[in-house]
Amino acid sequence: MHPNEIKTTSGIQGKVYDEGLRTHMTRIYNRMMVGVLITGVVAYVAANTGLINVIMANSLLKMAIMFGPLAVIMFGFKPNTMSSSKLRASFIIVSILYGLSFSAIFIVYTGTDIARAFFMTSGAFAGLSLYGYTTKKNLDGFRSFLVMGMFGLLILSVVNMFMESSLMMNIISAAGILIFGGLTAWETQNMKEMYSPSYGEEANSRMAWMSSLNLYISFVAMFQYILHFVGGND
Q: Which residue in 141, 232, 218, 136 sits closest to 177, CA to CA?
């Protein structure tokens, strides 16, 4: 093959890859945004229809709503074995359950607090995700530290349920913003590197659902921790 033909073929392949990657990333962000929208709508409806009062009054229902998302993620979200359509259903269920558990924020915080926290979270999320997409630095080294930090946050949160320490909650929230912010950057870089047109549409779609879920969890976690500081300043 002539050198010019090789260069042309390489250029075409690069263009196809870039277009495919852009489509893949756009699909991930669109799915994540739909999940956030579902959570917000469900939370608003539950708070304004009195459903949150029913949930809070029933201890079993309250625990089911609190731990339901974790159960679905652990047992009902398996990209290696589940089809894209089943992953979509699981993602929607997680978004709804988070919405039910988040409905209390409409009672505890004002609409201004919620809107301010949402826009602050959106700005921080966009910046961190853009950094993860564009940086040449390999962020894999931070993953283990961030995951350990996430489990540490979970343990501290459970402990603070009994201690009810405002100082502890401030520490947890500050650490949570840093940890899930870091996970946002890492996940963005990871989902960019994992994409390949050779995997096929179905496999890439399943990976996209997994990435959408990870980014969704990081977004809602950051929002919750930022809201703690925003609402606490009034």
A: 218
Tokens at 18, concatenated: 């870039």
- Burial letters for 182-219: b for 16+ Cβ neighbours within 10 Å, e otherwise? bbbbbbbbbbbeebeeeeeeeebbbbbbbbbbbbbbbb
The two structure tokens encoding residue 216: 């969704």
Cβ contacts of 181 within 8 Å, gap of 6 or more: 124, 128, 218, 222
CA 187/CA 90 separation, integer angstroms: 20
For residues 188 and 133, is the Cβ–Cβ distance under 8 A?
Answer: yes
The CA distances from residue 224 to 94, 109, 134, in Å, are: 16, 11, 27
Predicted confidence (pLDDT) per residue in 154-212, tens digit: 899 989 988 889 999 999 999 999 999 999 999 999 999 999 888 999 999 999 999 99
The one-letter code for the residue type at 146 is L
pTM of the model: 0.89
